[in-house]
Amino acid sequence: MNQITVTLQPVGRRIVIERGATLLEAAQRAGVEMVASCGGMGVCSTCKVRLIQGRVTPPVETELEELGEELIRAGYRLACQTEPLEDVRVEIPPESLVAGQSLQVEGREGRVNLDPPVVAIDLQLMPPSLDDLRSDLTRVNAVLQERGLGPLAAGPRLLGALSQQLRQENWQVRLAVRREGEASGLVSVLPRGARLVGLAMDLGSTKLALFLVDLESGALLAQTGVMNPQISFGEDVVSRIAYANRGEEQRKQLQTRLVEIINQTLTELCQREGLCADQIVDVVAVGNTAMHHLFAGLPVAPLGHAPYTPVVSEPMNFPAAEIGLQVAPGAQIYLPPNIAGYVGADHVAALIATRSYLAAGRTALLVDIGTNTEISLIHRGQIYACSCASGPAFEGAHIHDGMRAAPGAIERVHLAEGQVRVVTIGGQAPVGICGSGILNAVAELLDAGVIDARGVLRAAHSRVRPANGKAEFVLADTTETAHGREIVVTRKDVNEIQLAKGAIRAGLEILLKEAGIPAEQVEDFIVAGAFGTHLDLASALRVGMFPTLPLERFHQVGNAAGVGARQMLLSRGLRQEAAEVAREVTYIELTTRPDFTPTFVECMYFT
Question: Does the model's pTM come out above 0.85?
Answer without folding.
Answer: no
